[in-house]
């Protein structure tokens, strides 16, 4: 087994390169057909991975870049150029890492198991890992430039979602190369790797369907809250946006970020049962008692929904106060779950900017700042301010509809509840 040089005409091997580019074009067309799926196995990624030991870094760059020419009509030229540069750079980087990790370029029928493991599989897995990280970094950069998303947040989300897939691409790419070069099957190798790819697609589709079922469940519950009162339409979504910005600033893990989004969407779900006969304009004892009970009612309603397990504590405790005068359990400071503290800050900010007496964001931020250390967690308040300063929280108009006569999320209501209104 000889590594050889990869930049010469022999190593590029034009017929092999042309076949791989053709397969890449076909795979890209297939991906366009399946573009409605949120997640799918990428045949082009498998072909790109296999191209690394078959045609070297330069060849892999071409295999990655040229199929990106197949774009939907109307795709802006800059987007087309970015896609080509991205996949080409990933192929080139993967090829260089493969060689740097000791990967070989020539295999034959005499290649032993040790040769294939040390000279092909392990370097290929290292290369796919680097390709995944580079892809995540590029996507995170685009999200940062286009929408202000935190680089760290976007990178962690993208790399988490891609890790298992890319390692799978490495394993299937290894099988592809063995069949192509060692067994001399050439393009027929693709037929033999389609079956495991289809199995992987089936598994991933199951996960995607489960995820979509979860989202449908959350949307149904949110719709129930908003149907109960048109005054709350869009409020959960807005709280979720602010929570996301605060969570990014605090460096939450992707798993915690997901739990936070569910909690933000459902934190007022306890308000749908039992229904109120009218919205009081003042905090009567009966109204105060029902407000104090809604976090517990909400958790009771959600207790059998497994995927909300990490969100339930935030829903239960989002009206606790930093000074310990909140409800339902009177927790204080760090004893309050972090996600609940984030929802509390977002809740107050949204109540001030969307409520009956809504005010400009700058004025609302001053009020939130003043409540740090008494009502709200100082660290979460500082994160809200930092996210605003970075442009991560964009002011937008509230949907048309009636105002809440009394918004239980308003800071003055929290103070009244803390002062001992009978419950």
From TrEMBL:
Record's keyword annotation contains Membrane: yes
Ranges that cross the membrane: 12-30, 42-69, 89-109, 116-143, 163-182
Domain HD-GYP stretches: 210-400
Origin superkingdom: Bacteria
Residue segments, region Disordered: 399-423
SUPFAM superfamilies: HD-domain/PDEase-like (SSF109604)
Keywords, ordered alphabetically: Membrane, Transmembrane, Transmembrane helix
Pfam families: HD_5 (PF13487)
PANTHER family found in the cross-reference section: CYCLIC DI-GMP PHOSPHODIESTERASE TM_0186-RELATED, LIPOPROTEIN
The protein, known as: HD domain-containing protein
